[in-house]
């Protein structure tokens, strides 16, 4: 009867898995040290062999392993087979690794003789004469000579407190009227000549007429030097003394007009 039933059922394992289950996969049983007070109660731990095995060294597909397999006496063979009781892992087909002699040779070193110098990087030039482009300098501006002639003494004077170049810049931007005229005018030399006093000093530089009265105490060369150009064209004196000074900027708020030839009667 029982044998009849067994033969009749398609698979007894699907109905009675515990009774006819296949043997478990091989596992490594390691005896753990005696349990301490605070540890669990298990005395044996089952560990998967594949998880605990150290990685092969040298690597399975490394050049060292290939060279050592060619020379069996080499010390690079896997040590695990001799030092442990684990069976040697199944031999896998080793990948084809090229030896140094089979590798492509490195490229030749570049020849210094064939090198061409790089073009200089584009840069902004402050000198329009040098490159024809870049920032334009104001008209009539000359670069200050760096080296002064030997023995030439500076003729700068000590300015009164509150009359530094910064104070002049502050006065210019204060909005105070420094011209003393309603509008710009065409000024002939005969009119310019009338403004030659310290409290009313005009001068013409590069064709522009400035009321320099307010600037007198701020002039680094002193009031007396500046007054030498009062009431007349001071372009030559100015250029002889300091052609690099930007008068267009320094006295722009003092502009009163433009120097014109004397009208013919
Ligand atoms: C009217 C417009 C003028 C302006 C805006 C002006 C401005 C200046 C400035 C900024 C300096 C200092 C330069 C520096 O630090 O290197 C200076 C110095 C000087 N200026 Fe003028 N100046 C003017 C006219 C004149 C004139 C007409 C004369 C001459 C007659 C003159 C004679 C001097 C002298 C002798 C110095 C001292 C230069 C030195 O030895 O360092 N300036 N001026």
TrEMBL record:
GO (cellular component) term, any one: cytoplasm
GO molecular function, one term: heme binding
Occurrences of domain Cytochrome b5 heme-binding (ranges): 184-260
InterPro entries with a match to the protein in the record: Cyt_B5-like_heme/steroid-bd, Cyt_B5-like_heme/steroid_sf, Cyt_B5_heme-BS, Cytochrome_b5/Flavoprotein_Rdt
UniProt keyword Protease, yes or no: no
Keywords (A to Z) from UniProt: Heme, Iron, Metal-binding
Domain of life: Eukaryota
Protein name in the entry: Cytochrome b5 heme-binding domain-containing protein
